[in-house]
Amino acid sequence: MKTNRLIHEKSPYLLQHARNPVDWFPWSDEAFAKAKKEDKPVFLSIGYSTCHWCHVMERESFENEEVAALLNDAFVNIKVDREERPDIDAVYMKVCQLMTQSGGWPLTIIMTPDKKPFFAATYIPRENKYGRPGMMDIIPRIQSVWQQRRADVLSAASEMTKALRQSLSGKANDLSEETLHRAYRSLSMSFDPIVGGFGQAPKFPSPHNFFFLLRYWKRTGEAKALRMVEQTLQNMRHGGIYDHIGFGFHRYSTDARWIVPHFEKMLYDQALMAMAYIELYQATANPAYEQTAREIFTYVLRDLTDEQGAFYCAEDADSEGVEGKFYLWTEKEIREVLTPQEANLFLSLYQHGEDFDSAGMNEIPAGHFIAHLQPVTEAGNPIRPVDDAMEHIREKLFARRAKRIRPHRDDKILTDWNGLMVAALARGAQVFDEPVYLKAACHAMDFILESLQTADGRLLHRHRKGESAIQAHIDDYAFVIWALLDIYEATFQTKYLQKALEYHDHLCSRFLDEKNGGLFFTSSDAESLLIRPKELYDGAIPSGNSVAYINALKIARLTGKTDMENKANDIYRAFRQQADAAPTAFAHFLCSLDFAIGPSTEIIIAGHIDHQDTQAILKTLRRHFTPNKVVIFRPEKPDPSDIEALAPFVQSYSVIDGQATAYVCSNFACSLPTHDSQTMLDILNTRPKS
Fold this sequence. Notes:
Elements: H1 12-16, E1 24-26, H2 29-38, E2 42-47, H3 52-62, H4 65-74, E3 76-81, H5 86-100, E4 107-111, E5 117-121, H6 135-148, H7 150-165, H8 177-190, H9 207-220, H10 223-238, E6 252-253, E7 261-262, E8 265-266, H11 267-284, H12 287-303, E9 314-315, E10 318-319, E11 322-323, E12 329-330, H13 331-337, H14 340-349, H15 354-357, E13 368-369, H16 388-401, E14 409-410, E15 413-414, H17 415-431, H18 435-451, E16 460-464, E17 467-471, H19 474-491, H20 494-511, H21 544-559, H22 563-581, H23 587-597, E18 601-607, H24 612-623, E19 629-635, H25 641-646, E20 661-666, E21 669-670, H26 677-684
Parallel strand pairs: 1-3, 2-3, 18-19
Antiparallel strand pairs: 2-4, 4-5, 6-7, 8-9, 9-14, 10-11, 12-13, 15-16, 16-17, 18-20, 20-21
Helix pairs in contact: 4-6, 5-7, 8-23, 9-10, 9-11, 9-23, 11-12, 11-17, 13-14, 17-18, 17-19, 18-19, 19-20, 19-21, 21-22, 21-23, 24-26
């Protein structure tokens, strides 16, 4: 079969299109030079390998000879994997949002040979359908406009480029605790009191909303903030958005009740949702939340882990060309796999039949269902079938499902998403005292440091089939630093803290916008695009700026280096105006702001790391939800000089009376040292007087 230029790429998404009759180019100087030479606009298509509607558009249009002929005649065609080139995606997604007031993937942009856009859309059907113009109609019309009304096109492209480059103007006020209160009130108003979540269908996980609400509860004691998190996470775990047979979360729910998911599974969702359940477990001590976090890790370590220890991107929604086919069941199949008693038990617990059919699931084949539990209408202890009998049933169904054709797995290794997963595992290792998670986190971090770092110490963004490539962006650095700080607090090995400092220095030196504050998405020596994007909004994942902000604050407290506070403020000032106007769009940033406003706490533990008294203090500390803290360990033996070199202020903290000793400093004031874990907790839970 004939192939196009994409056959030489590493990206699974680009390789999926390598046999299209469309004459695809990867993003390259060659493509734009050809467009200039032939005086053609550029058709840019951006997606990713596990994107359902990307598959639909490929089957309908890019595999169609007639559509391909039109594309090849009218345009120079470029394919981009948004996961490989999030910098390009960030620029042109802003274009789509400005032009259409919406966005998503597949993203379709048509632009001049000098990269100035004049048309934007997401999915486009092959033929006109339900008022949505199709490819067969759009392509000739744009070609005609390009040839006959060139001046209008160039004017529109220039205006769009100008709008894209405009920055926010006006003075921004300082943010305060009132910003946190307004964000809470806004989330409270949009909360679904029946099954949790925010707004109507479709419903997305948005874990940073949970992170913020838990911190708000901790700050204010507002019980409803905790209830909103519990009710949402219980219903997500009960719903079809959770894979009850193989574990892990699907991308989002297409309905308001968390029942019918968009079935793809993304690595970043697993990482962030695991963190949410870990924090909720710390806040409530409910073992169901620990179990859910552990199940997520089971899925990732089983199905998304490379033999070298790093983590793959995602699993597709589709198998055999049908979305969700891998995950659906019929009552007949359930009864074939299980004994009559087991089948009756499973079917009595997991909703199917009329309840399922009434949820508006018109794309689900008749007679099939998604396993899900009864929704929880009030936050409390969720009823969970966790006994040995139910686990035996799950294992039998899992073995049966394993014989089906699996969805495609995108086996790219992305530095930023791996950073999130490593941070989640390091957090789980601490809270659950689970060495398996710590080993996995360290193994993956070792892979990043060995295989995704250049000889001069800079990060790369993507690894696949032995090749590491693509210059790292802000998320790569910010999320890996997040992971390094969590691994440091899980192991107290100073090499991880040292590496976090090195990466943060690099981030500040090459990404900082010294004029307006904040960090650009790309390095100062990265490829020059239409604009140099700066991402602030917390979307499916937190923005790199939000994470870099709290990283800087934590590094300042861990090392005692006050210049790091100034670097944090450089990031903060870029957010103020937008966060003041729409605080809930910046939920992860608000977590960082919560830390900055304080009280925040530095805990220095002096002792022998393997002694029982030290471990008792650490276990107590890690089990409880105390988000705005950093923990530093000063070993009595061996030589403590490693941590003293990075954090000189710890030299004066040492073991007292031969026992592990905790020093707690909160709101810039230190309490008397203690050997007692409960006394330490009492100090942590006493809010300093302002």
